[in-house]
Amino acid sequence: MKLGILGGTFDPVHVGHLIVALHLREALSLEKMLFVLAANPWHKTGHEITGVADRLAMLELALQGNPRFEVSRVDIERPGPTYSVDTIADLRLAYGPEATFLFFVGIDSLATLPTWHKPARLLETCQVVAMRRQGYHHVPWAELERELPDIRRRVRVVDVPQIDISSTDIRERVASGHSIRYLVPDAVHEYIESHCLYKKRGAE
User: Does the reported pTM lie above 0.70?
Assistant: First the structure.
């Protein structure tokens, strides 16, 4: 079984996430795409993140009706900071030794891979796939290989659609009173409105 792993805070999940996930699943013939919701991502320490319950509810609403898309709670059920290498280890226990995992990262994140928790172990336990958007060509392979020998052979680069939507922009649009219709699935839009998410304090 070939499974894709797309992690994130999904604060909120938007149509860009879904379009890219669909493209990757079809292009790489994945059995399923696992959306791994982050509980306490170490690289966003200090950034105010919406509560897990709300982010989980929105993600489940966004993925409903697509049996190839699945929410994974592996990170939100583990106490403490979330590290990718631990996520892979837990998913291996859940899906068995025969499963093949493709772990997706933005290509700009490759430059920081040597600073991740146990990066060499991560490369051994899954296929890291770097998502490259239009106009991004440079990858510092020489510098990376000084830290992680053989990384170029272990990392696969794939092109993905350029979707100019971000969760940050969506939060800012809600806070300023602008519409986010068509940027998120209808069910997510309704959830954000009914739960007064992302509004400025005092504006609820």
Answer: yes
